[in-house]
Model the fold of this input.
Amino acid sequence: MKNSFFVFDTNILISALFDGSGIPALALKKARTNGTLLVSDEVAAEYIQVFSRKKFDKYVPQDIRFAFIENIITNALPVIISSYIIVCRDPQDDKFLSLAVSANAGCIISGDNDLLILDPFHDIPILKPADFLKF
Done:
């Protein structure tokens, strides 16, 4: 890995919150301990939008979800996107690629097959949480 700047896909953060001792939570802890999470305005907006979904109320109360994602965003390094990427088969995932390329991230951590299929992207590894833990 070329540096300790990390991009986390939203699904991994949701999983980390829902199971604080699971692989996604361990990957998040490793990234926060050994490096810096990156965030763009577009990624932060998606985090907030997804963490606001009512369907998650039965798993974790909304105030706890908001506190969790606010902590992630507040402690992440904000990045202004300089390279807009439009290559992913799911256009909603291009924002994570744009963030990673604009910041020259060390890796993207995701469970999304639409991102994982692109590994590596511009020499940036795209890893499942379990694979990130092996680094």
About this structure: The radius of gyration is 14 Å. The chain has a mean pLDDT of 96. The longest strand covers residues 5-8.
